[in-house]
Known about the structure:
elongated; Immunoglobulin-like; 1 helix; disordered N terminus; mainly beta; single chain; 156 residues; four-stranded antiparallel sheet
Amino acid sequence: MVFVLCLNICILLFAQPALAASNTNTIYSNIEKFEDGSYIIDEIVIIPNNTDFSLLTNTKSTTAVRNSIGYDSLGKKCWTFSLTATFQYNGSISKTQTASCNYTIHQNGWNCKSKNATYSGNTAKGSASFKCSTTTFNTTIGLKCSALGKISNINY
């Protein structure tokens, strides 16, 4: 009996990441076009984990990723900048637990000159600067969580 209980707990613990990955949900998507034909695709993906931190306070957690993806005038993907933030909320208040950023370069010649992630209260902010030859692109993106766990974008 104890063995079966332990086995079920292990299955639940190891199955959790796979379940979380399959529950991702894109809640925002936008394309910003520029005069030279280049553009940026901006999206927010939610990774709900609904972890109860306390049964008494009903505190839950959710993670959101905001991606900013730069394309050149030929439609080639050049870089991706991602801000990832985890928020706690309980129906009355919300707060940012962690925020981090990273990037991927997709085309030769592009590089990331700087990147930074910060958070305060229930918001997270990420900034990056990308450069290719004489072209420099600066991006700043943000995420916000309501007391009910609703994620929204912040544009700077």
